[in-house]
Each structure stands twice: as structure tokens, then as C-alpha cells.
Amino acid sequence: xxxxxxTFTMEPPGYHLHLWQPDSGTITHTAFIGSFSGxxxxxxxxxxxxxxxxxxxxATHKL
Length: 63
What we know:
By secondary structure, this protein is an all-beta fold. The protein contains no helices and four strands. The model has no long low-confidence stretch (mean pLDDT 79).
């Protein structure tokens, strides 16, 4: 079935450190704080208005 493997991953907070020098320009370093949570499946909440439309998005109805 299409998109059976569709998942998302939460990213932890992080920061960018920018360094600018006239001879080399801008250098950016990225650091994440913590760990990544996931992968999580895309699931519809039973209260979602189109929840009963299992034909158009069957992979989102796994419980």
C-alpha cells in the first residue's frame, strides 16, 4: 500500500553558532541538545472529521 512507511521524527532543540571573519566569510556550526524521538507513524485521531474515510488514507488508521 502506498505510504505504509510514512513516519516522522521529532528533532531536539539545538543552536547555531555563527562566526564571521573578513578573510573567510561566515561559518556556521549546528549543535543539537538531546536525542531524537521517533520514528512515529502518522495516525489520525478518531475525532478527526475524515477519520471514517479509510479508503483514501488506509495507512493512517492503524490502532
